[in-house]
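Anyone opening a protein record will find just a pair of labelled lines. A complete record is shown below as an example:
=====
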Amino acid sequence: MKKTVKYLAVLMALLMVVVIFSGCGTQQNQGNSNSSSANTQTSNSTSTNTTNSKKLIVIITPSHDNPFFKTEADVAEATAKQLGYDTLVLSHDDDPTKQTQEFDTAISRKAAAIICDNAGADATVAAVKKAKDAGIPTFLIDREINQTGLAISQIVSNNSQGAKLVAQEFVKLMGEKGNYVELLGKESDTNAAVRSTGFHSVLDQYPELKMVAQQTANWDQNEAYTKMESILQAHSDIKGVICGNDTMAVGAYAALKAAGKSDVIVVGFDGSNDVRDSILSDGIKATAMQPAAKIAEMAVEQADQYIKTGSTGKPEKQLVDCVLITKDNASKLNNFSLSQ
């Protein structure tokens, strides 16, 4: 009897050990199962975020009231979206302070790149440097800054070449003689000085061409109208007006027409649709087309290349030639692009 009891006690002890170890094994397996599930969820979440997140390209230009800048912004935005980026389009209205705030927005949004037609050759340097220090590359279009090594690309029209084309046409239209007026763009914009210098490299070769007035109208149509009205009071005998951009040319021509002087020769620079229409209706006589659409597209494509490879394969400073627009080819011009 004692042996039987002893045998049962040993058997009970063995059964308890088996139960305990079975429970531990089950608990451990459950823990591993939960851990594996958690790892699977994290992996799926990361994969989903990578798939759904698009990199951001911020596009900053002057006011879209000017069709040139609107074309830049529209083409840059369309190209970026086509390449798979999200976009944020902003306008600094030629205000360096506002532009700085917009660069700060791009930095805070962790943009992949900034495309910018800037608010001043000197005033923009600090903003581009700040973006660079934050690891965000800047691609400048239309207007340069007065420092190299900060922006990845500075893609601009060949303003000197374009200005010479316009000046040569102006000389021909003027018959190489007569009094003329020059309207200048913003003094803070290097393009204003480059174009004026290009004009005079041609005009100053003709001693019978006399500049009787030279005033700044700040690229603005209304200001050009007002300046032209004032100039006419002192120089009613002018034969021609050469303008640093098309917007000023439109304003100057409107003032001349209102004064009964629509026969005065007016030329511009940009290649806007407004001036195209005026040329075709025998108003303004000529302009130089800046390939704004092409330049904006180039900048975004180079940004995409840089984001993907760390290089554009291009020099920082790039010039794109302008095209003279007269009545002969104005019908082919649309939105700063010339059809073949």
In short: Residues 1-52 have pLDDT under 50 and may be disordered. The longest helix spans residues 2-52. Residues 159-289 form a domain with the Rossmann fold fold (CATH 3.40.50.2300). The first strand starts at residue 56 and ends at 61.
